[in-house]
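re the bet — no i am not wrong, look at it urself. input seq straight from the record:
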Amino acid sequence: IASALLWGYSFFKKPKPLNEKSFNRVAIAGFFLGLHFACFFWGVRNTSIANATLLGNTGPVFTVALTFLIYRTISKNVFFSLLIALVGVILIQKSEINNNSTAFIGNIVSLLSGFCIAVVYMIAKNIRKENDTIAYGRSLFFFAAITIALICFLANVSLFSFEAKDFRWFLFLGLVPSILGHNSLNYALKFLSPTAVASIPLGEPIIASLIGWVLLGELIPINYFIGAPFVLIGIGLILFYSEKDKTG
């Protein structure tokens, strides 16, 4: 749906097409984005939401590791800033994290989803320097959709086992989290390092708790007030130092 919306938008505002040398890399990035989505939703069905969110947002940890493996360098400032943010996330979610051994597979799969999104950002780093955000996003989501369709086919899962009323939520997910969320991060990749972009979603628990308080009247746990400053300071420092070191 996200890909279809972006392709539809392209009829009105025609972006510059992807250059030929980027096509294969976008296909690979889309494959890993599809795996990221599949692993996250598979993981969240087999572990707690807190576990899946925490482990699914380990992308910056993997981008740091991949950056070191590929470039043989690492920014110490970015690394320690990331540790600060991760401490905050753990403090926020520690009371909700499920240590039940039956959730082990769900935790592993959720962790794999974090690795997959890190690969997407690492691949996209150079693609975004040369290509338009809309052209990149519409193709990225298209290949992700193909990947998920293949996974459903192999797992014998129907793509159409939902009610018509669910379509409005699919449309919402395609527009808001995918286009406004993921595609905004795709845009940011042109200016920030993969670790900086992957670190931004670490603030999700803070935003989710505020939305829950405003819309649903849910009380904000004390853990959020303890961990939120660590997360915000950590992300702020990562963005600050990443401006000086775009490879980290």
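see?? Residues 149 and 159 are 7 Å apart (CA to CA). told u. also The radius of gyration is 18 Å. so pay up
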